[in-house]
Specification:
Layout (H helix, E strand, L loop, with lengths): L4 H9 L12 H7 L7 E5 L5 H8 L4 E6 L2 H10 L8 E3 L2 H5 L8 E7 L10 H11 E12 L14 H7 L4 E7 L12 E8 L3
Parallel strand pairs: 1-2, 1-4, 2-3, 4-5
Antiparallel strand pairs: 5-7, 6-7
Length: about 200
């Protein structure tokens, strides 16, 4: 099951990374423009870190990355040697997110192919982790797949109705719908969303 580092490390070792775009995600890069260059931005399940690299090169100074697989970090740092290694976290994201030291530390979390990659039973854990990691008023935003949810994955699908329920209180769902910057192969299979964490 895709809920541990060994699974994802094996995918990288076997070059089974069909999700990889070999470059940044246009919709995420455009969304990041709403944040100042010193905003603390987290990209969980970042894979080879193309979006993190693009933001770093554009002058964003507080970019943090996370992926299950150590190989993803190794390959990223070979491309971006001036990126601080301690800002690329590997291993179990949910164990890391449970640490109170990182709660409320992020202004923005960018979602792209992480939510769809974890087993659907873990999605409630995902929402709780994002709630803990964001500061009040912080935003979770990005892309979510809308092809039918099955137990065959990753990627696992989802629906607008699921996302409306998942990212309601304590979030406010500000946006959910098609994005003109979706890449062509995914344009009919995903929606862009933005959810703001409400003060408690």
């Amino acid at each position: 099951m895709p809920d541990h580092a060994e699974y994802w490390e094996a995918r990288y070792q076997e070059a089974q990374t069909g999700w990889d775009l070999n470059g940044p995600t246009p919709a995420l890069q455009a969304a990041a423009e709403a944040f100042p260059k010193d905003a603390r931005i987290l990209i969980p399940g970042c894979g080879l870190g193309w979006d993190g690299e693009a933001l770093h090169r554009r002058g964003y100074t507080e970019v943090y990355l996370s992926d299950w697989a150590p190989s993803a970090k190794t390959q990223f740092l070979e491309r971006v040697p001036d990126f601080s290694p301690d800002r690329f976290i590997t291993g179990d994201f949910f164990s890391w997110a449970a640490d109170e030291a990182v709660h409320g530390q992020f202004d923005c979390i960018l979602e792209c192919t992480f939510y769809c990659a974890i087993p659907p039973v873990m999605r409630v854990n995902y929402a709780r982790a994002m709630e803990r990691l964001l500061r009040p008023g912080g935003q979770l935003l990005g892309l979510l797949f809308t092809f039918p949810l099955t137990e065959q994955g990753p990627p696992f699908g989802g629906s607008v109705e699921e996302y409306q329920a998942r990212f309601s209180a304590p979030f406010q769902l500000d946006q959910l719908g098609p994005n003109p910057l979706s890449i062509a192969s995914r344009a009919e299979k995903e929606v862009f969303f933005c959810a703001t964490l409400q003060p408690s």
